Amino acid sequence: MTPWIASAVPFADAWGMHDGDVGFGWWLVLTLGMLALWGAVIAVVVGAPRGGASSSAPASAPPSDPSAREILDRRLADGTIDVEEYERRRDLIDDAGRSRGDRESSTLGADR
Fold it and tell me: pTM of this prediction?
């Protein structure tokens, strides 16, 4: 018998019972195997409702508020307003955006 097998025999059959087939060593191996099995079962049961860590669906970004221009475009598409009203309001939005941009650039220039 090779030396490492000979040293493992007393561990596998601690009391010399059962002709060397069952002992503390096998009890320990089977206990650790059972703990690993139940750990895997619990991990699957707990991980399944959560969707698991390997979810293939990308996380969606939270919905943002639509801009004034998007709302105006949607109202024209819905037929809520006519083309003349759309153009008038679009010009107001564009003018407000340009004047806001001018104010922001002048404010930034004042800080320098």
Answer: 0.37
